[in-house]
Amino acid sequence: MNEFFQTLTNQQILQIVAIIGASIACYTDFKSGMIRNWLTFPMMLVGLVANLALFGISGFLYSLGGMFLGIFVYLPLALVGIVGMGDVKLLGGIASIAGPAFMINTLLYSGVVAVPHALLIQTLNYGKNAIPMLLSSFKSGAWLKKTIDNDNATVRYHFYMGFSLFAGTLLAFRFFIPLGW
CA torsion angle for 9, 105, 23, 11 (degrees, to 10)? Predict the structure, then answer.
């Protein structure tokens, strides 16, 4: 185990810090349904300071650019109600710490996780009617309410994007695809 830590690069250490932040966000999302500002804003600050300390002004600018990219990628989805603002700030924090290439990898992998995750939640809540209800919710606009049938008392399971983002960071760390930046 000690050999593992000795072989890590500074960039990999920052990626692990981003994974830790995403794991805390996953926990708070499951616990309260929210990703908290007390986590996301410090993640952004830690990313800026750590990249400045490790890589100088170019690292700071890379971190700053990544942070804004992470925020602006998810912001349109938050404005239409697909994700929450905590998800937006979490992605900005991940990008601030680990950089825009890691954030884009996280975003892509979290999307791969989110689809089966959403289908599983839908199936657990609605059984055999899950897929038809999901499709009809897009036609009616009910998906904006985060639940298809507010009067349905059997809805017990909720979709938390914090889980998908956490899984995305793990996958991005393991299967990182360099983007040439």
Answer: 10
Residue 124 CB coordination number (10 Å): 13
**Is there a contact between 71 and 92 (Cβ–Cβ < 8 Å)?**
yes
What's the mean per-residue pLDDT of the chain?
87
3-state helix, strand, coil in the chain (%, to 5): 80, 0, 20
Check whether 178 has a pLDDT greater than 90.
no
Cβ-based burial of 141 (10 A; exposed 0-12, middle 13-18, buried ≥19): exposed
What's the whole-model pTM score?
A: 0.84
* Ordered DSSP codes for 99-137: -HHHHHHHHHHHHHHHHHHHHHHHHHHHGGGHHHHHHHH
Tally Cβ neighbours within 10 Å of residue 36: 16
